[in-house]
Design brief:
Layout lengths: L22 H29 L7 E5 L6 H7 L13 H8 L5 E9 L3 E8 L2 E7 L2 E6 L4 E5 L2 H4 L3 E3 L7 H11 L4 H4 L2 E5 L6 E5 L4 E5 L4 H13 L10 E3 L7 E2 L1
Parallel strand pairs: 1-3, 4-7, 10-11
Antiparallel strand pairs: 2-3, 4-5, 5-6, 8-9, 9-10, 11-12
GO biological process, one term: cell division
Pfam family, one: POTRA_1
Organism: Arthrobacter woluwensis
Amino acid sequence: MAEQRTGGSGEGVADVLAFPEPPRLRRRRNLLLTLGAVVVVVALIMLVAVYSPVLALKDVSVRGTRIVGAQQIQDKLKPLQGKPLPQISHDDVERLLQPVVQIKSWDMHFRPPNTLVIDVVERAPVAVLKKAAGLSLVDAEGTPLAAVKDPGAAKLPLVDGTDKKMSADVFATVTSVLGTLPPSVLALLSDATASSVDSVTLNLKDGRKVVWGNAEDMELKSKVLQALLKMPEDPQNPVHTFDVSAPRHPVTK
């Protein structure tokens, strides 16, 4: 009986072919690696910018001041000296400048590497207030801005705060009225008086007077008064009084 043999070379090992990575996947991987590197670099730059002494505050430049001195504002901001510019916030500056009453508004920006620039808008003085303690400039809200020695140099009307009739309400009315007038008209006034909130009178340096009345229609009254003051004078019929208390029907006499 013939012997049957079985034989073979065993299980064949299949060779696995290594296909190249698709270009799309390779580009995506490279892009992710690049973006990751950029993020790390930007984070390091931001970290250096925020905390580096290279950007520490050394100088404060102040612009737009006339009443308050630039040095006064710089002194107020001294606590910020040495602090990196990126760490200085609007609130930091606001907290330090709030006590400076002469400032109406302000803005800030940085001038790298070490300078903080403050642009100031001051409160506008509208009168010289006379009180027992002396003379001072006040704005339309009655806020004292600065002491003055020569009221004439200010080119503003005098308001007598020592007058017993000048109550707080009357004073507020007078200053609000003056606040509606342009500097060119304020410079023509010698003083402003009132015995009540309904009887504001403006006296001009040339002896004429303006009957203003109360605080109603102030903007209209201001425009009417400016127009009346620009009218040519008639030597035959000189005007001594401008009555704008009813601004839609002004009277001159």
